[in-house]
Amino acid sequence: MSEKILEVRNVSKTFPGVQALKDVSLDVHEKEVLALVGENGAGKSTLIKIISGVHKADSGEIYYLGKKVNFKDPTEAIASGISTIHQELNLFEELTVAENIFVGNVKGFSFSKKKAFKVVSELLDSLKFNIRADEKVKNLNTSEKQLVSIAKALFLNARIIIMDEPTATITEYEAERLFEIVKGLKAKGVSVIFISHRLEEIYQIADRVAVLRDGELIGVKHITEVDREELIRMMVGRKIEEMYPKFNRPEKETIFAVENLSVGTFVKNVTFDVRKGEIFGIAGLVGSGKSEIALGIFGHLPANWSKMVLNNNELQPSKNMLEHGIALVPEDRKKMGLVLELDVTKNIVLQNTNEVSRGLHISWKKAKVLASEEVKKYSIKVTSIYQKVKTLSGGNQQKVVLAKVLRKTPRLVMLVEPTRGIDVATKVEVYNIVNRLANEGVGVIFISSELPEILGLCDRVLVMHRGRSMGILDRHELSEERIIKLATGVDD
Predict the structure, then answer these.
(1) What is the dotted CATH code of the domain comprising 4-236?
(2) Which CATH class is domain 254-487?
(3) CB–CB of 467/487 below 8 Å?
(4) pTM for the whole thing?
(5) Tell me, what DSSP letter sits at residue 112?
(6) CB distance 195 to 165 below 8 Å
(7) Can 4-236 and 254-487 be said to share one CATH topology?
(8) pLDDT tens-digit profile of 352-399?
(9) Under 8 Å CB-to-CB from 37, ≥6 apart: which residues?
(10) 168 near 194, Cβ under 8 Å?
């Protein structure tokens, strides 16, 4: 067993009304990838924030390189060799790659763009990162920005790199490249704490896995000693018999149909229909146009079509499709689905003011009743209905989005990447909601990059490639191989 580089000993942390961590102890060894898993709200974020100097533990100790440490802020942790790459990357979009890596790290000499370019170019070459040091960060895609964050951590001589949901917004190909880079980091002597909800990734990249549940450490296992079923049981405290529950009842009646849908330069002449009781899936790689289909139908992006019908009513392009009964659960819940600075009540009420207002006056007494009903209906974990949405876990934030969108009882709901960044148990809750919607006669369009849930949940699947439909597969035709072939433009 390699030497311990980090030791967390009996760490506890309490926030108002919530015990986030209780007596947690774990180790990180040299040259290892330790996966940290658990449901949203399990304590993962609190633990890494304590390790990286964002929060102070109420009790317990942390030892780094054999010495007791108590970082007063993230800057001190970074200077000591512990860097965190957050899901929302902290980079300056208008600066170059070299400037981002140097910013805040120029010590004892004036900044020289020429010197920075040379040093960073050599670093990127040594890492085999295909990125130019003089490229502005705003021109990079998400995975390239992650590589910049990794390069910055190594520039600062990081011994431990914490990666928080690093694959949440990148393609499968980009994820594979990231895993190769992580393996290379191990070879260079760097340890990695890897946080992900995607269990298949854990088995692909981790040496050991630590499981948190309700703020407590449930166990640490070598990845070869725990199977997927046991890992899920450790995470949620129970056995999930059916990861993809399916109890919808598809019928032949058509609820929604669109012919020759085009959305800007993203989607060209796509035709499909959604039947009563079915879950209609749309799959494809990043950039295929699958998400833009929903944004075009909803009116968020300019779109046109030769014919669109919802419940026998023909629709024309409009910027307010909500009036026609079309709802959208957006891909980016933080930017498009929520107002993070507002509380749960205000977020739910925003889209449903007609229920609690008369003219310009809102009855907050009615708003309280409405929000309480939705919090109970969707089992949203909150300290109160006046808790700010930004303080909720990803899964509970998504439930707030679902609550406010579905409160209006839409006739067609489009869910774009609805389980991205949420835990296993909450995913199952979302799948149950989707099944119920279909059975209640709501048209359901389910758009996802995760093939297992497409295969497990959908009755028919439209596969997109570079803005065009490659075909619609019936359930008996669905397979991962068939979808990937179509999504990559291989149609045999």
Answers:
(1) 3.40.50.300
(2) alpha beta
(3) no
(4) 0.69
(5) -
(6) yes
(7) yes
(8) 988 888 877 889 999 999 999 999 999 999 999 999 999 888 889 999
(9) 44, 195, 196, 197, 199, 202, 209, 210, 211, 212, 231, 235
(10) no
